[in-house]
Amino acid sequence: MENRNERHGQEDAFEERMLGPEEDGMLMELAGIIEEEEARPALVDPARIAGMMEAFRLVTGALDGQEAEISVKMHEPFRSFGCISVTFRDLVITEPAGLGRAISLASNCEAYMRTDGSVCLSLGFHGLTRPTF
Known about the structure:
This protein has 133 residues and is α+β, with helices and mostly antiparallel strands. It has helices at residues 4-7, 13-16, 21-39, 46-62, 96-105, and strands spanning 42-44, 68-74, 81-88, 108-113, 119-126, 129-131.
């Protein structure tokens, strides 16, 4: 299978491009900020968790009877983040309004093709925890 970028006469950016010192420094600074944030005491935000669980209920209802793998991850990769992922090959949405409501409860929504030919729909939820100060 040919690389999409090669069809346009371009080299694959992920293979060709290395991070320069400025970009590397920015990433290290960002990593430090994240480590500091994760080390601070925090409380779970019950309303945000309830919103994520409501979104899960709506997603499962919208896909009722479909062959899809639904997973929920909370506090990964950061304790303030959670994700609902749906992986499928063919999908018929039985409750589009429910799926739309689930997406509106999320902080972000992504859909992308996987290398095995399936599609993944991910709903990300930021703010599952709040700093205590």
